[in-house]
C-alpha cells in the first residue's frame, strides 16, 4: 500500500475505530452504557489516563456521519467521508475517499475490506489490533502517564460542536506531542494536531462536518461490504508468531514502547508470508512497526529515512554471519525513535 494511502487510513482510525477490548472509563465517568454525556458547559476534571479512556470509549459508543480533512505543512491534503455505526458489540464503518485514487474501506470489528474500483480489486484482511487514537493497551494500570503529561488548555469549537482542548506533552524526545479537541459532551476526538519538540504542527486532522446519531443502518453497511461481485478478492493472511521463533530480539527496549504483536505477513501481497516478520510496538498513543525480510539482491533497495507528516520510515540493510536482511521501520514518531529501534534490533540465531 502506498505510504500516503496508509497514512490516510491510519488517521481515519484516529476518529473512527477503537479496538474491541477497550478499557471502560472509571466510575464517575461511566453511565449505563459506559459513557456519560456531560452538560454543555461542564469540563471533566481527569488525569491523563482517564482523559484518554474517555476519548477512547466515545468512538465505540457513538454513531455518526462526518467529513474530515487531513493536512500537513508541506501542502498534502486529503479528505474522506465516514459512516460509523456502534450497534452493541458490533462496530461498522464505511470510509469513502474524497481525494486521490477512488477507494472505499469497510470495517466490521476486526475485518477490513478496501475496494479499489479502478482496478476491480478488493483487499481483505483481519486485524487484531487496529491503529487508532488514543491507542491504549487497555490495562487499568497503564503506564502512559509516565511518558505524557496532559493539560486542559481551554475551550474550542469544531464542526459546530463545543470541545475541550487538551495538550498531551511528551516527557522525552522519543515521541510527538498532541493537541486534541474532545467534543464536550461525549468525549469524541473531533480534531487533532501532532506537534514536534519545538511545538510546530507536523500534521493535523479535523472534522469539517459531523452529525451524531445519524440514521445509518448496520445491515446496509454489512450488505455493501459483502458485495464483491465483479471484483477480485485478495486476502492477506496473518500468522501469529514470536520474535524469538523468528530469531530476533531487541538488545535494549526503547523507553515506553511495549510489544503489541508479531506476525508473519507479506509486505507487497506477493512475497510469501513466512518471509516477512512484522513486530509492532506501542507507547499507548504512538505505534512503531518493524518489518524484517531476507535481503533480495535481485531487487536492490535504497537505504533511507523519510518523513511525511507525522509518519517516518527508515529502510536499512542488516548483515550478520547468518545472512543479509532488509529492515523497514515505520511509525508516527520522530526519526530518532526509529533509529533507536533499528540500532537495538539483533539476530539471535
Automatic annotation (TrEMBL):
Keyword Signal: yes
Gene3D superfamilies xref list: Lipoprotein localisation LolA/LolB/LppX, MucB/RseB, C-terminal domain
Main location: periplasm
Keyword flag Signal: yes
GO molecular function: antisigma factor binding
GO cellular component: outer membrane-bounded periplasmic space
Segments forming domain MucB/RseB N-terminal: 50-225
Domain MucB/RseB C-terminal: 244-345
Keywords attached to this entry: Periplasm, Signal
Cellular location(s): Periplasm
PANTHER family: PTHR38782, SIGMA-E FACTOR REGULATORY PROTEIN RSEB (PTHR38782:SF1)
Record family assignment: Belongs to the RseB family.
Protein name (database record): Transcriptional regulator
